[in-house]
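Weekly sync notes, structure subgroup
Attendees: PM, AL, DS (notes)

Item 1: joint prediction request from the bench team. They want all two components modeled as one assembly rather than separately. Inputs as received:
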Amino acid sequence: MPNVEVLTNGQFQAVYNVLSLALASMGATTVFLLVVMNRVLPRYRIAVAVSAMVTLIAAYHYFRIFNSFSDAYVAVEAGAPGVADSFALIQGVGFNEGYRYVDWLLTVPLLLFETIAVLALPAAVRSSLLWKLIPASVLMIVLGWPGEITAEIAPKAIWGALSTIPFLYILYVLFVELSKAAKTQPNQVGKDLAGLRWLLLATWGVYPISYMFPMFGLDGADSFVYRQIGYSIADVLAKCLFGLLIYKIARVKSMYDDPQFAAVEMKEAPSSEKSSA
Amino acid sequence: MPNVEVLTNGQFQAVYNVLSLALASMGATTVFLLVVMNRVLPRYRIAVAVSAMVTLIAAYHYFRIFNSFSDAYVAVEAGAPGVADSFALIQGVGFNEGYRYVDWLLTVPLLLFETIAVLALPAAVRSSLLWKLIPASVLMIVLGWPGEITAEIAPKAIWGALSTIPFLYILYVLFVELSKAAKTQPNQVGKDLAGLRWLLLATWGVYPISYMFPMFGLDGADSFVYRQIGYSIADVLAKCLFGLLIYKIARVKSMYDDPQFAAVEMKEAPSSEKSSA
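Output from the run, pasted for the record:
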């Protein structure tokens, strides 16, 4: 898709600041998750470590996206000096959006891995779920890419539709098959798991909506700005908030599994029967 | 708001050095808090970890603010070579103040989180306080932004007034509701908590005062310099000093909760009856 040639000052600042916000969020979440990783029982640490890798990979990509964006445009001062009236695309530089797809190709399978890992399901069940989810997620990202780079409506619609098939299959596995497998989870974990899935659905839903902007005739500077803001906010929620929820589930399950751990970590064990046992 | 076009040598140096001071403080506080995090009982570590994330995020933003400021101006040598007489804004670069708002959007909710987390209140009370404080703080920052970027007085006053509503609500929750919830805290913690709240009120008060400068007709280079210095000092107090106070409260509470921990951490246990027991 061709880059937008001119952005107003406000449009440029909005994209610039939201990219920086995403970078800061990803970096801080990475450090936080690594620092608190040992505050859950060993069996849940892999899920927290993988969550930190997702935000680390995303921090790297946002660093690249931020630099690519700020290098691609130059301020144009038509009136008072010191006040940019607009920002113009520099000939021969270009803003690289490919980073986003590379990021998703790495992080989306890892997000599905951490979702399954935190449940500590029996090995056979976990393995079967991962063999369904991970190939489907790779297929979803790969099929979306040809549609993203074309400006034409027909191929965009076809690749978008093809990419939707594995997306729907992932939802089926998460909402139907995973529910059966996760029936035996403690009550609070059941609620958090439901929250996790809805967060995934809500944030992943932003990507196809942004993808379809050009099909609705939204393809100028405004559409570009909304897409960047939408992708960035969705990424922060889908990776940082998601990772923190994974950590919360790991904490709740650690305390549920081991009342002694709960007694050390909190003033009391979660329920009085347990602490008196 | 347009950037200031010319700064005297002294004005430029003052802003440059105070931004660097803030960056150094944020970075060092982050490392310190992470290093000493395990010197409190496990139940208080989340508050110390989140305090470190606040200063980490702020360190990132001060790094960006510092670079943005020093890239935006060029030294003008009118007299003796090697002596800058003034600093002029470079055409087409600009100093980005948006970083401050992005920083507050992330750190202010986290500051409120650490304040509640360090008290180790019952889960239901903690959750209820956080559900009041965090949305209010996000609203406060978001409503302040349109007023910050405009140079006109009327919209500035309206957005400022709207932003004040959630600010007053936060103060009400912290000074009234939190007091009730924190009644059972040990004596020293009660005093430290009072200190924490007054620090928060005093430092957060700097932001609306700086915000109102242009309404008092203060809008030249001097006002810019005072605003940068005011924001930076307020940030150092509100984040570094605040984080260190959180750590102190966590230490006091750890020793109060667990005399054995106190005996290891200090030469004597806090009270003689306890050490003789």
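Discussion: The two ends of chain A are 64 Å apart (CA to CA).
Action: AL to compare against the crosslinking data before next sync.
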